[in-house]
Amino acid sequence: MKKWIPNSRWIVLWIALTVGCAPVLQKPAGIDPFVQSLKREMVKQINRDRAQHGLSPVAYDELAAMAGDRHCREMLSAGYVSHWDRSGAKPYYRYAQMGGDDFLAENISFSKFSSSDPTAHINVRETLLKNQKKMLAEQPPNDGHRRTILNPHHTHVGIGLAFDPHRVVMAQEFLSRYVRFDPSPPRKAKLKDRVEVSGSVLDTGHKLRSITVLYEPLPTPMSVKALNKTDGYTLPEERYDLLPNLDGDRNYEDGTKADIIIQGRTFRSPIPFFKGEEGIYTVVVWIYDEEGRPVPASNVSIRVTR
Q1: Claim to verify: residue 42 and residue 141 sit in the same structural domain
Q2: pLDDT digits (tens, 9 = 90+) for 139-175
Q3: Whole-model pTM?
Q4: Which one-letter DSSP state was computed for residue 248?
Q5: CATH number of the domain where residue 264 is located
């Protein structure tokens, strides 16, 4: 019997670029009241868009917003637009390194304003709302932003912002929060370490299905030129699927033993560094939704070195 692999495509996220950009002095987001009002308005607009499609609203998440802010500030300062940062890290890795446990999907938008009037500047609020409208207007198969906004399994969102008089960068960090780790998994480990995760499914309407461990090499720094050539990102392809225990603690038909111990809504499982190499090992917990479909509920990345 082969280990179970969820019958679900990895979510591919696309990046929308309106024009190129050049580095100039930026205005940091911080906790400026104007910036916070923009973020609140964006969340309201996202929820209006979701409501029009019969979807539940998403709640605002501050940690995801902080991760988005940090990335937006770097993009504006360095003069690039990408899901990767200058260290070569992807969105889910950055979020996990800041302490996030949930599954994360990122949208990015960028706009530039030019005028012969040196005193003219970009209208940040208007630009953000226009970019949101453009993302909702996307058509298949190039509709990654739209599908992310209208994903019925997203529960939270953080809004990252950075802007100057002529440019606006926004990151929408959507989360799917269905499990709670106790304790939160380590973010760094050695190859020789024995790492275990444990936690519980939050909602009685969901059931844990499996855990997948993904592998990718350690990130390496990227140039601005290379970053501006990037497009969408995916989760890594190299994977190891962990099996849940069967009723009565039975083995599988081929004698394979379970990896995940599930008791009610709680779970416990070892996390193998199956490649035997340094790299990023990302833990994806899969749950069943109310209709029995597999849904990713985490992407906790562990940086593993010798």
Answers
A1: yes
A2: 999 999 999 999 999 999 999 999 999 999 999 999 9
A3: 0.88
A4: G
A5: 2.60.40
